Structure formats: structure tokens, C-alpha cells
Amino acid sequence: MKKLTLLFSALMLSSGLLAQVKKEDQIKSALWAAPESARAGAHVYGFDKDGNFVTLREGTNNFVVRSDDPNKEGFEIVCYPKDVEPFMARGRALRAEGKSRGEIFAIREKEMMNGTLQKPGYGSTLQIYRGPDARYNPETEKVEGGEYRYVIYTPLATGETTGLPEKPNGAGHPWVMFPGLYRAHIMITPPMKGN
User: What is the structure's pLDDT at 190?
Assistant: First the structure.
């Protein structure tokens, strides 16, 4: 019986250590989305062993990062300033209620218009590191194989107010998405390598 108890204890300890390593890997990988100067103090969101969205590390500066969601295809880590968090949190809450992407857009737009949802600050930037083959390498502690995409929040902006087109001129060119709406933003999607 003692041997069985010792074996069970050893298994529990090793599974706890594996979970801890996974948490640390999530933190290290998520931080790659942030500017290097902001990484040490960024607030880190990620996912627990059951796939629930959780805080992995409290932040001390104005940056928030999120690790890759293991329940989704591909790889995507993100970084944004704290003023974007209410907008993001509302999207997560609506997704949890089973709302579609279109419904989430419409609900958040209405709530920003009536003042019940804080809109992202003008110029706040969402940095996304993504790619179907991107991965975090725990041996090198680097994220490899992806590309950045940038979303610069510009509530109510249009092509006329920004001087940018409202449709992309070509790969990597900035343009205004959702012009004239509270969720308007400048989209910059550099072409993926090999395209």
C-alpha cells in the first residue's frame, strides 16, 4: 500500500510540474507579441488545463498579452494596451453566451454608441503574431514561423478623415476597416512569407 501511495504522490507531483511548465511556456510565448521594452510588466492571459481563459500573471504596466488558444487551429498571440481590455472582455463574454461573430460586432457597436462599453482609445494598437505554422519553441524560448498583423483603433474614422482607402490597395497596405463606426480601425496585414 505504501508503494502505491508513493507512486500516486509521484504522479501527482510530476503532473503538477508539467502544468507549471505549460503555464510558464504560455507566459513566455505570449510575451513575444509585446514590444520588448514592455514584456517584463505585461499582464498575461492564457488558458488553464481545462481550456478556461485565465490570468497567468498580473501586470505592472499598460500592456496586456494573450497566449495562443490551444482549442483553435493555427497559432495566434496578441498584445494591446489596457484601454482595449473592456472591448476584448465584452467580446469574450458574448462568445461565452454563444453569440456569433456578427452578433458580437453589432452588440459591441451599439454599446459603444450608447456609452455602456468603453471604446478603445484612438490610436490604441492590437498587435497579433499569427500563422498556421507558427509555434513556440520551449528549447529556444522563441516564437517562430509567423507574421505580425496590426489593428490600430480609430473609432468613427473614415477614409476621408484618415487619408487612407476603405479597402486594401494591396498586400501589406494600410486601410480603414469598418469606416464611420465605433469599431473602425486601420488594418495593416503584411503579406505572409512566400506570398
Answer: 87
Distances in whole angstroms, Cα of residue 178 to Cα of each of 92, 154, 175, 194: 20, 10, 10, 29
* Coil/strand/helix, residue 50: coil
In this structure, are strands 142-144 and 135-137 parallel, antiparallel, or unpaired? antiparallel
Does 115 reside within a domain? yes
Q: In 3D, which of 63, 55, 59 has the Cα closest to residue 38?
A: 63
For the chain, what is the domain count? 1
Q: Is 50 exposed, middle or buried (0-12, 13-18, 19+ CB in 10 A)?
A: exposed
Secondary structure letter of residue 120 according to DSSP:
P
Mean pLDDT to the nearest integer, 110-138: 94
How far apart, in whole angstroms, are the C-alpha atoms of residue 15 and residue 24? Answer: 14
Q: Residue 109 belongs to what domain range?
A: 2-188
Q: Is residue 62 part of a domain?
A: yes
